[in-house]
Design a protein that fits this description.
The structure is a homodimer of 899-residue chains.
Chain A: H1 4-7, E1 15-19, E2 22-23, H2 30-45, E3 53-56, H3 59-66, H4 73-90, E4 93-94, E5 100-101, E6 103-109, E7 119-123, H5 129-137, H6 140-157, H7 164-177, H8 187-205, H9 213-226, H10 231-240, E8 248-254, E9 265-270, E10 282-287, H11 291-296, E11 302-303, H12 306-309, H13 317-320, H14 322-339, E12 343-350, E13 353-361, H15 366-378, H16 384-389, H17 397-400, E14 403-404, E15 412-415, E16 417-420, E17 423-429, H18 432-440, E18 445-449, H19 457-462, E19 465-468, H20 476-484, E20 487-490, E21 496-498, E22 503-506, E23 509-512, E24 516-520, E25 525-528, E26 533-534, H21 540-552, E27 556-560, H22 564-572, E28 578-582, H23 590-601, H24 605-630, E29 635-638, H25 652-662, H26 666-676, H27 688-693, H28 695-714, E30 721-725, H29 731-752, E31 759-764, H30 767-771, H31 773-776, E32 782-785, H32 787-795, H33 803-811, H34 825-842, E33 847-850, H35 858-866, E34 871-874, H36 879-898
Parallel strand pairs in A: 4-5, 17-18, 18-19, 19-20, 27-28, 27-34, 28-29, 29-30, 30-31, 31-32, 32-33, 33-34
Antiparallel strand pairs in A: 1-2, 1-3, 3-8, 6-7, 6-8, 9-10, 9-12, 10-11, 12-13, 14-26, 15-25, 16-20, 17-24, 21-22, 22-23, 24-25
Helix pairs in contact in A: 5-6, 6-8, 7-8, 15-21, 21-36, 22-24, 23-24, 24-28, 28-29, 32-34, 35-36
């Protein structure tokens, strides 16, 4: 329920009139008037012809609920006054027998919630006013048709009657009379139908259909307020993060009719093409129709302008209703110039006269958003900063990946999580080996796994896309796929995978290895067979916006990259360095994983060091490759992080195979696997804890980094490697390991006779580390917030296990968003803020960044900008998104600080 | 290395003289003088006969290290002045050929570190002074024996020579001469030996033994400073939490000799009996001996007083040296009255003259501590508050459990963690079933498991003690055993358990089911066979101290109890309520676990509710039992906390058995077990998260609590049940569940026609909850900090997995203490403080407690007192400890606030 006391004040004014060239409200008052009401008021004030009406403020919605779902008398009183205003303006009278005023009653929240709430049209009709309308309009059929429509709508929406019952009565009559279309019904038929309808209403609801127009009005207004809390409205609000307490306004407006003959029409239009952004008047209309007919799709709408008609066989409004069209063009230009953005408008022509019913900012594709933004800068309509604010950063994803052809026919098999965007099509395989084999044979494959582990990396690289049946948006498959810019649908629980039979089962389908499917990683959909995809195009508008973003941001953008390939992609997308290079992924390559395993099962330090010596040249080559690729940009390398058991095989079969390969008894391997087992690996023996107990591991890695750096520096390239130590919880961990790493790097510098600067810093990814950040900063040259693990520990939620309840948490509003996708500002954010402030209390110039998944999320980036981080680091394909998001955050915060 | 700049200032004074009735230092200056030096100064000032000497301050230790392990000239200068002082006082001269002054050089840190650092006696002897000593003492053998002892000690300690080489030379001479005892050596032999020793020293060290007494002195002083950093000293410091930067002082003191004939003697004594606290002079001495002989155990020491001689065949000092004894008695009385505490003293009688060598606060058993404290109150020597500060709360554990008879002979098998104190003896069994069976047959058993799970509860109850080979101080076995007050040795990794062969193997032993072992839960030791144990006795001094503690504490003490039995024990120990009643343990009883499982595998809400309906009467009875037992004291009941998979069987065999029992297909069970598997159960679907997805579980529990409360209240007992919701991270979780619980309780009240008050609160056990405690407090009637889980999440350490690195962390000083035993004040403590402050910002009278393991740890209790919690809750057997610790914390904090 709405909490009236906490969330809003009692409003000064309940009802706002508009129409006839003036209005009590304006476009700025969306909070009270809702989007529709505010824009109707604005258009009125601009002298645009709007059917007169009034808006009951959103604040009344809360009061309505607090008042036991009754309209307060004060509201009714003011509404009646406003109704008189309409009557005066339009020269009709509500409930008048001869010249009755009819009104529409519509919802209108701050944010658009299309179709989610209720609408009632033609209100004010009854058995006497219908005759007045017939007489006045000279169209008896029109009047009676309006009346039967009103009864249908009202009984459904306000009286709670099952709408299909009246629909059945209408169909029965058509059958009985042998009609096909509703328009075949004569005015006599309609009169009979109205009688029939009213009888049914009494039978079903036990109440008479209200004849009193005022009773109708209060009923309709109440119903619109009540429709704020229908299940579908609540679901929509949750989905779009619209707070419950906002409430809806109610708009009561004089009816105008586009269905009063061939000089009448109704239409919707955009001031520019919303799909590609081209600058011409774009839209559709229907002669002799009401608004709902345009949307309903029964008749094919006609194009608005000649330009829009080029690809159509139908005539345009420009040709059919030139006068109204001319007026409409002048209005759309006025509106676009006034709102300084592309508008989505609705209009009706009633017997030649143009009425504007709505204007709002038009939704557009990402490509269109870029084009419109650039054009409007050139037209000097908006500033560069405004242009950046017009583009949704997340939408850029659409532009960076192949997408499903919107025209294509498709059979949906299942829907999982949209884990990594783009589209992919290929033959299904169930193992990484098959993925590589089939790829080798020139096949495109989709790797299907219950879930992926680091050992699946090669298969993931070989595949076009990845489909998993378990795990969330931040599962291994999702994280790695996003890093690769590869399409992934994760956690698709409907699908059952049978590894043994190499089968995938979902509903009635059963697919075998080699069958073709298509994934849409942007929606999470899985389709049967091949669905056509469209390749991405990055044009000059994209480059222009990116450059503008760079000029307007404060945050640096780095990337998470573990190999030269990813590093290259990220640099092409504008990354200014590597914020997170995970060294463990390098351990999984086929030519070294067994050496890693030897290191792990070593019984002594000497034995372990021997294996590490073998790993050293591999690691050195890894780093040389990455350093070269980054051409002097900063590279932050995180030393080994995961617990050692992640590198060991687990099934008996794998253990036996490994035993043969490395000539270590099965029993020894098994007992090592068992002894390394952890109950909660996330909170286990990992990261710097490994290095405290086995210092030689980090020493080898530090040596590999230093030797690589020495080679690069000798080659004449500048380089300042940044070595990062994970899972630090105490200052002493860092001081011990820092000393070891420092000594190793200095040793190498002496051996190689090369000097270079290097930094040693730490991840802040445990609550304790954030709390004692002032102490830790004494030993750290930089901080990087690992917000993935910080979220897991601060909230006590394992991201691998959260699937069973996180959905319920978001849908019940317990968490605003998935905290692994968008940072939990209140909890985790507070720790980031605390860690930054305390760290900088010790070192005012401490470099602070973030390298969790949140580094690529626009909402999180806004937060990171606000707490003064120096950079964010994200997966290569999110770099452009981050650049734009950082610019927007910076522009918005400067705006906020000016206020 | 010692950080001289950060930790200490450059001292004003380097050297402090004492002796002959005056001193430059005092007992208050332990920080600079160390314990020994401070007390020597104090005794001097009291006019007690102390061999004159001087103390080089602890601050010089840091300077010594900073100065490249060299004594600064200023220090030498002042030491020489102080040496002249000694010469004047004693009438001997250092290095003098006729009447040489000999000195001892001893360490002395702030805290006693017995035997950990170096000592040199008889310093100042060389080839000429030895003759002077011989002449002056009239005892040539004594002089040469002193000389050879000095060479042995000095060459070992200062010159770093392997001490056994000289020992061998001595033994060789004895063999050669046909002697048995050292005392058989004549002065001629000793002269020869000294020559031989000096030769060996040159051979081994390449250096001549220093003849110059001053060179000897500086060498000895430096060596004592260096001995601050020997491995054994470092280990001891880590063990006893003594900071490295404290450093040691060096005491240089004129030698006195208890081995100059039958009118000489040396001894140690306590002013009261340290083992039972009785008030009489207690100690031992040896005629014609040096201090080391008393400790060495070669000769049997004689009792000091007649009273102490009652149980001895030997004569007392009171009889043999009545004059010196009389003087000693007057001194010990003076010292005890002066220090107002029981003293541990050392003395030497040199040719009839009594010299005091040391006084310090005497260590005592817990029983003695209680007795002495009570007696001293009665003697008006100390206040009640001081008495409480004299007793170590942790020591009370000794009094509450049976203990190993200290006299008993025993064979140590292995050593694990002292997980739950007390001693237990019985036949080993390897399963809970066997434990119950054998118990039924009248056998005493020890349950041996790799680790325990909640299903082992019945076996643990049946057993005398529990031994596990895996898991730490806070593993399931440890926590549950402490809760039961039952002896437990945990994580005894040396022992290998073979369930199949029902065997336990350790070193060369192999024990079968039925073999007898004895556990010492206070030390972690496991002994072969039966070792005699001693039962605890709680006498009136215990009661008196407890009452005093109650009168002096602010914190309330509650207990963690899940059943009437534990509740009763805790109440007898003085618990003022239950702070944590875990409902999940109730689910494991044989007669209900299968119903719980049916609930878990239910496919629908209806099916689940059906199983819950069956559980309801069981839970209601549980609560009635506990409420009755607590007789109106507050009872906090935590609703279900662990993830559901904890209740399911895991092995194929168990699953098949369950399948037969509850008639559910094996496949269904297996797939349920699989689907509920979690990667990190600690961070999984548990606590309130279960209730968000399955509200019916908490609703059943709330109903059971309410129905139980209704019955109790109808019976005339007052009761305010406190219902606690675990793992809350957001306000909304609590508000949703609070509403459900509240509605259920109100329903029951209506049904039963009974009214009673009840509280609904939450655990604060996640960092996020502490951060947003102000918001959460809006929905909570109370907070209880779950510091176990808060420690796991704040530090990112799983307590079940920490065993592999926590030891290294504590020994390397990365963590001061095991954070699961004693609260990490800096990290977790900060969250407790933050949570309390923020919670009370919303509700100033919010009741706040703690129910983690830390609630029974004295150091943690001090912290909880300081941040203003209302109560701590601990296992029943720790209630007395907590009562005393709370009083001490309160007294200390009042003292601190007065300053």
């Amino acid at each position: 329920m709405i909490n009236t006391t906490a969330s809003k004040k009692f409003p000064q004014k309940f009802v706002y009139s508009f129409g006839a060239g003036s209005a009590e409200g304006s476009a700025k008052m969306k909070e009270s008037l809702g989007g529709k009401g505010a824009n109707l008021a604005e258009m009125s004030s601009l002298g645009i012809n709007v059917p007169p009406g009034f808006t009951i403020a959103t604040e009344i919605c809360g009061i309505f609920y607090a008042n036991g779902k009754k309209l307060p008398e004060e509201v009714k009183r003011d509404a009646l006054k406003a109704l008189q205003n309409i009557e005066t303006n339009i020269g009709k009278k509500f409930g008048d027998h001869n010249n009755p005023l009819l009104v529409s009653v519509r919802s209108g929240a701050r944010a658009s919630m299309p179709g989610m709430m209720d609408t009632i049209l033609n209100l004010g009709l009854n058995d006497t006013t219908v005759e007045g309308l017939a007489k006045k309009s000279g169209n008896s059929r029109f009047a009676w048709d309006s009346y039967r429509r009103f009864i249908q709508m009202y009984s459904d929406v306000v009286m709670g009657m099952n709408g299909s019952l009246l629909e059945v009565a209408l169909e029965d009559m058509k059958d009985h009379k042998g009609y096909k279309l509703d328009t075949d019904l004569t005015d006599a038929d309609l009169k009979e139908l109205v009688k029939e309808f009213k009888k049914k209403v009494v039978e079903e609801t036990g109440k008479k259909f209200p004849e009193d127009p005022f009773e109708q009005l209060w009923g309709a207004i109440s119903s619109v307020f009540e429709s704020w809390n229908t299940p579908r409205a609540i679901t929509y609000r949750n989905l779009h993060e619209i707070p419950e307490w906002w409430g809806t306004a109610v708009n009561v407006q004089s009816m105008v009719f586009g269905n009063m003959g061939d000089d009448s029409a109704t239409g919707v239009a955009f001031t520019r093409n919303p799909s590609n952004g081209e600058k011409y008047f774009y839209g559709e209309f229907l002669i002799n129709a009401q608004g709902e007919d345009v949307v309903a799709g029964i008749r094919t709408p006609q194009p608005i302008s000649k330009k829009a008609a080029e690809s159509s066989s139908l005539k345009s409004m420009e040709e059919i209703l030139p006068k109204a069209y001319e007026e409409l063009v002048s209005i759309y230009k006025k509106l676009e110039a006034h709102y300084r953005d592309m508008q989505d408008i609705e209009f009706t022509v009633e017997q030649g006269r143009l009425w504007m019913l709505q204007t709002r900012t038009g939704k557009r594709t990402s490509a269109a958003a870029l084009k419109i933004a650039c054009d409007m800068i050139d037209e000097k309509l908006i500033t560069e900063q405004e242009a950046l604010l017009r583009i949704d950063p997340s939408g850029l994803d659409q532009l960076l990946h192949p997408t499903i052809d919107p025209q294509a026919k498709k059979t949906l098999l299942a829907k999982g999580l949209p884990a990594s965007p783009g589209a992919a099509c290929g033959r299904i395989v169930f193992s990484s080996e098959d993925a590589e084999d089939w790829k080798g044979r020139g096949e495109k494959v989709i790797l299907v796994r219950v879930e992926t582990s680091p050992e699946d990396i090669t298969g993931m690289i070989a595949a076009q896309g990845i489909l998993t049946t378990r795990g969330g948006m931040t599962s291994h498959a999702a994280v790695v796929a996003r890093g690769m810019g590869k399409c992934c649908v994760a956690g698709c629980g409907e699908i059952e995978v049978d590894y043994k039979r190499e089968e995938l089962r979902v509903s009635s389908y059963s697919l075998r290895k080699g069958d073709v499917i298509t994934l849409d990683g942007s929606t999470g959909e899985v389709f049967l067979g091949e669905v056509k995809t469209v390749d991405p195009r990055l044009d000059e508008t994209f480059d222009r916006i990116m450059k503008l973003a760079d000029a307007n941001r404060r945050l640096k953008i780095r990337t998470n990259a573990d190999n030269p390939r990813d590093a290259k992609i990220a640099r092409q997308f504008g990354a200014e360095g590597i914020g997170l290079c995970r060294t463990e992924h390098m351990f999984f390559d086929a030519d070294r994983i067994d050496v890693v395993r030897k290191m792990i099962i070593a019984d002594s330090t000497a034995e372990r060091e021997q294996a590490l010596d073998q790993l050293l040249p591999f690691q050195r080559q890894d780093f040389i490759g990455i350093f070269k690729e980054m051409q002097g940009l900063p590279v932050t390398i995180r030393l080994l992080d995961p617990p050692l058991h992640e590198f060991l095989p687990h099934t008996d079969e794998e253990i036996e195979e490994l035993s043969r390969r490395i000539a270590v008894p099965v029993e020894k391997l098994r007992s090592k696997v068992k002894s390394l087992h952890e109950f909660n690996p996330m909170l286990g023996h990992r990261g710097c804890r490994l290095a405290i107990t086995f210092p030689e591991i980090y020493n080898m890695q530090a040596r590999a980094i230093a030797e690589a750096a020495a080679e690069i520096v000798k080659g004449g390239q500048t380089l300042i490697p940044e070595i990062m130590i994970p899972i630090v919880a105490t200052k002493k961990e860092l001081s011990i390991l820092r000393a070891n790493v420092e000594a190793t790097v200095r040793d190498v510098q002496k051996e190689k006779g090369v000097k270079f600067d290097f930094l040693i810093g730490t991840m802040i990814e445990l609550p304790r580390a954030a709390i004692i950040a002032d102490e830790i900063a004494e030993c750290a040259d930089f901080f990087s917030f690992g917000t993935n693990d910080l979220t897991q520990t601060a909230l006590g939620i394992s991201r691998d296990d959260a699937g069973r309840f996180l959905g319920a948490y978001v849908s019940q509003g317990i968490l605003e968003r998935d905290p692994f996708v968008s940072i939990d500002r209140q909890g985790v954010g507070e720790l980031v803020k605390m860690g930054t402030e305390r760290g900088r209390k010790t070192k005012s110039d401490l470099k602070v960044g973030v390298c969790g998944e949140h580094g690529g999320d626009p909402n999180s980036i806004e937060f990171f900008n606000s707490v003064g981080l120096d950079y964010v680091s994200c997966s290569p394909y999110r770099v452009p998104i981050a650049r734009l998001a950082a610019a927007r955050a910076n522009i918005l915060s400067r705006g906020a600080s000016k206020k």
